Amino acid sequence: MAAKSYNLDAHCQAILDEYRENLPMFKEAEKNIKDKLKKVFDKAGIVVAALESRVKTESSLVGKLELKGAKYATLADITDIVGLRVITFYMDDVDKVASVVDRLFDVDWENSVDKRRLHEIDSFGYMSLHYICRMDGFPYRFEIQMRTVLQHAWANMNHDTGYKSGVEIPKAYLRNLNRLAGMLELADEQFSIIRNDLADYRRKVQALVASGNLDEVPLDADTFRSFLQIRPFDALNRRIAAVNQAEIQEVNLMSYMAVFKHIGCKTLGDIIRMVKEYGEAAFQIACYQIGLTDLDIISSSLGPQDVCFAYVLKSGAGKPGMKALLDVINGESESNAMMAEFLVEQTSDLPFMN
Fold this sequence. Notes:
With about 350 residues, the protein is an alpha/beta fold.
């Protein structure tokens, strides 16, 4: 199939011919660069919203040559034949991605641009970090753009509503666009601030848990996750397992955060006191449950479950209270009413109830 002809001068035609001749190499380089970035992101635990790549199409290159072909001595002067874009969720992740790019490739700093340093009121959508790079074994430079999801969305919207249309935007509309850009920029900053504040909070929680100051730690998903790392129910579970010389099967106990909240715990210290106060009663319930069986595997949820059972039974909440607790543990079900009745009746003669 004959190559399409364009109305280009000899100089620009030579650049186009070089592009055509090396197109397979450009496509291979695009794949290699993308694979290198993805591998390092995965290894470093850097989560990105998107990793896009493309080789400039022939029609796009021709358009560029028609506009400013004299600017380029050779194809090598066009730095975006191969282009990649990394879109992050947070502003500070752009710098993490940039650090990866700097380590992987030789960055042409003279031609790279940090558009985040612009301060014009309408610059938000163009606040990308643009690196021009080189890679061993590939004789052409390539471009990697890095920006956030909101910056990317704004750039696309502004492109579609702005200069791409070829129509000058009235000042009233332009003002509204710029106001929206300011709101998005503020949102971008706040997302990063909130994430960093949460990270600081989690570090403080972990330090408090490690120090044992659990009365100062409110009960929530983050704190309970850190709390489980000190394995607060292990001693009780080992004591229960010893009844049948059973093994303990570890399960995820995060669902018990809601259970402990249900029975009134507000801090991690409340849970520790609950285990100390009702641990013996929980052991008695467990002995009743498994003592006459040949069960040789128990779940690590048995200890915290029976602590909660013991609390409800000792509090005098009776069958309604036990039914409500079982609804939290198992999900609402009519069978929980029968189980609650059985538990209340069968444990009424245990020593801790007298």
